[in-house]
Amino acid sequence: MRPSAAVLALAGCLAALGGLVGCDFELNDGRTATLTYTEDARAAYNEAMAAFQAKDWEDARALFGEVKRLFPYSRYARLADLRIADLDFEQGKYPEAISEYRAFIQEHRTDRNVEYAKYRMAKALYLDIDDTVFLPPAEERDQATTLEAYKEIRTFLRQYPRSRYREDAAYMLEVVTGRLVRHELYVARYYLKEDAFDAALARIDYALRTFPGSGLDPEALVLKGETLLKMKKPDEARAVFESVIRDWGGPFAVTARRFLDEMGGPRGTPAKKAASGRAPAGPQL
């Protein structure tokens, strides 16, 4: 795509005068216009935005590039950087968008659009988490991108507690937190199945400590109690099950109650089946 005639004429004019004053040039229809550097930059940016809004991605990218090249000292050059990141975001090119938003944040730390750039970078990380049906279940996959999204979203919410993007960011945080906790519990169950009890307990405690507010605490605690039972620590297991009943309720409290019944009921009663490691019926863990 070639720059418009107006942009080409403007570029020549600015080159001749150093961009310090306005100049006159003839438009296609014979009219004469006098434009300042800022007005010229705005006009070129608006032309690029028109292509962007029309989803003419190729032309928009070229036009934003022209804005950056011809008007590097205007605020429209910074906006062009941001819109190029938006171009990649809108086309689902999330790694490229993440890199471009990050560069904008680093290069323009005091710009008023940094909040927007940080939000979009976090959103791009969130959307870059691959959940296609052709992959293993989410909890079985590598969580590097999910963890990076978790960190960026938490940082954003901490830095901008009253942001207009807060509601969406809070929702994304809830989703990625749940996914990270489910991954830890998946690994813990694997270790439990292999009788690697210490490793299972470590993953459960890590999940509870590192990702508070996931909503999965009662599930994690029931799994912790079951692990302690298999480690032949019935008193610690009983305390965990009782905390689920007391503090959480819900379906996992029912499971915790069944474990306690299997153990012989109230605290201090000798355990009946703790050594067997057989889990009672209840919600699927």
UniProtKB/TrEMBL annotation:
It comes from the Bacteria. Keywords: Cell outer membrane, Membrane, Signal. InterPro entries: BamD, BamD-like, TPR-like_helical_dom_sf. Residues 40-238 form the Outer membrane lipoprotein BamD-like domain. It holds the Pfam family YfiO. Gene3D superfamilies: Tetratricopeptide repeat domain. Residues 1-18 form the signal peptide. Residues 263-285 are annotated as: Disordered. NCBIfam families: OM_YfiO. This is Outer membrane lipoprotein BamD-like domain-containing protein. It comes from Sorangium cellulosum (strain So ce56).
